[in-house]
Predict the 3D structure of the following.
Amino acid sequence: MPKSNPEIAELFDRLADLLDVEDANPFRVRAYRNAARVIRGESRSMTELVESGFDLDGLPGIGEGIAEKIHEIVDTGRLSQLDKIAKRTPLTLSDLIRLPGLGPKRVKTLYRQLNIRSADDLRRAARKHKIRELPGFGETLEHKILDALDRYARGEHRWYLAEAEAIAAPLVNYLQKLDGVGKVTVAGSYRRRKETVGDLDILVTCRKGVRVAEYFVAYDEVESVDSQGDTRASVQLESGIQVDLRVVPAASYGAALYYFTGSKAHNVAVRGIAVKRGLKINEYGVFRDGERIAGRSEKEVFASVELPYIEPELREDRGEIEAARKGGLPELVTIEAIRGDLHSHTNATDGRESLESMAQAARKRGYDYLAITDHTRQVQVAHGQQPEDIEAQLDVIDEYNARNPGLRLLKSAEVDILEDGGLDLPDSILRRLDLVLCALHYRFELDRKAQTRRLLKAMDNPHCQILAHPLARLINEREPLDIDLQRILEHAAAAGCAMEINGQPARLDLPDVHVQYARSLGVKFVLSTDAHSTGHLDYMRYAVDQARRGWLQAGDVLNTRPLQDFLAALRHV
DNA sequence: GCCGTTTTCGGCCCGACTGTTTTCAGTCG
């Protein structure tokens, strides 16, 4: 069974955890963690790169040693070094190290002194009050560990960006009401517009940090307080999300925002550059020999290390620093550039509203065009339309367009990709459509070879202009398709078939790292909402977020073009 | 273990908070 990138990355993370417990060279530990991060953020499959003879040594953070280990994993499915270490330091310790409050040192003590190897061992020992007797531990920590174990049993939860927004908005509003508070900004992965966030990081400018922290923990929705100090505090809300607050003076706003936005890997890399120049960057500013030389704005911070401003969405240490140095940063696409939505449903299938209402809402948004893309017959759960129903709908659209100048409704369909890669509408109807969107809705479990063949064949049909939600994943619910994405993207680039970035909060498909890679191959994109109601048209924001995280410029996105340009830019038979 | 517009050896980001200490290690972001 070939290993996926996340599986390979996990092996390196575990190796790092165990070495950490064993007190290995911390920089070596960091190198493994860094490699894990790079592998997770790589669109191309390590397995296929190895099989094609690609030189892994060229990837950032991956040298000769780790490249060799990746080869071993791909060839044998095992990492012998990890197996070797696991004989003396149990693999399950890496589960413990991930519990909040426990790190390598404490896990080591637990293992050495009480032979605790697993979460179950740990729970038993805590209940018998064995933990509090250990050196460096105590009663409070014992309680904290039991709490952490309860949370661990419930599993880690990451929140859709849309959910996080709904939770953050009233809290930001609340914080703003306190006297003396200046700016209130949600930073962290939320500001980087990552598809999901694990917690909320809120930055506040104010002279009196203590007062803000006190006010913050008194917020209605706060369930428990994890920590509270003069400049920061951390709480759990009743919704279950963790919120970290940080308070700095206004003069430090830029430096603090920069630090608090992350990502950690990006910050570490830029701080490294600063060190080489004899500078120190922290959340209060940029310092040379103890003297503060910048920090009011993020731009100042970047300028201090001679870099142009880097947009938050790019700050993942995935090449943005090098691009910034060379003046090669992309000018990211914006929501204002979007001229139309290319994926929407009506109550003819599983949408909730009429064609007229959808059109009205699109017009209100100022769009030039909206594609009506109801399902085809094979998708029975969504009441897919028979070919004759679709033909009837085309006439309705023609009539609508004749009556309503300004907005152009595009005749389309979300054509189902059949198991054999065929399309669920005859060419005679496909030919009549302004736009053909193709998507896969069942048999997600086909093996890699068959699934890849299925999508390649679908794209071989010259009518297939856009591949919608290409990975068919649902965040937190359904894994992405097992496909050779590199081959599919190369095929799409060659055939001129565009990839969709679907803005539904649970889809956001294609994901950022694949978008970035696809762009490098010359693949074109469209941004759509897959709206099932007029309100869903608002999901375009999330599609834009994902596009920006994938380095897309307006020129990479076909629906930034006016109608005629857009239609001409699509693939044609 | 990785890396190089000062280096192929000698570096590798930085500060806040907690709990257990009696001056600080561990953890976290």
In short: The two ends of chain A are 39 Å apart (CA to CA). The longest strand of chain A covers residues 408-416.
